[in-house]
Every structure is written in structure tokens, then in C-alpha cells.
Amino acid sequence: MPSGTSSAYQYDAVPNARIELLPGVGHLPMVEAPETTGNLLLGFTATGR
């Protein structure tokens, strides 16, 4: 991967992977956007994806 390229865009290499980009959120989504992160995690556990 070239320097400066986000690994987030390589998620499609993992079968059934899904990625959520949270605008304005950095390395600590659980601190910076706890409600959004929690809802995403609940959705993930409910669907297994």
C-alpha cells in the first residue's frame, strides 16, 4: 500500500467485510462519536455483519 493511503479502502479484500466512515472522527470513534459507534456495533452484532 502506498504511503499515506488509508487501509480502510482495502476492506473489500475480506469476505463479507463492511466499513463505515464517520466524518470528522479520527482514531477514537467510541469516544468521538459514541452513539453512532454503539449503533453500528449493535447493528453488526444483530446481523453478524
Task: State the gist of this model.
The protein is mostly helical and 49 residues long. It is 37% helix and 0% strand.
Which structural class do you get from the secondary structure elements?
mainly alpha
Task: Choose one word for the global shape.
Answer: flat
Integer-rounded radius of gyration: 12 Å
Chain-averaged pLDDT: 82
Total number of helices? 2
Cα(first) to Cα(last) distance is 25 Å
Number of strands: 0
Percent of residues in β-strands: under 5%
Element string (H = helix, E = strand): HH
**Main sheet overview:** none
Q: Determine the fraction of residues in helical runs and give it as a percent range.
A: 25-40%
Organism: Nonomuraea purpurea
GO molecular function: hydrolase activity
Keywords: Hydrolase
Protein name: Alpha/beta fold hydrolase
Name the features.
about 50 residues, flat, mainly alpha, about 35% helix
How would you characterize the overall build of this protein?
It is a single chain. It contains 2 helices and no strands. Helices cover 37% and strands 0% of the residues. The protein is an all-alpha fold.
What is the element layout, followed by pairings?
Blueprint: H1 29-32, H2 34-47
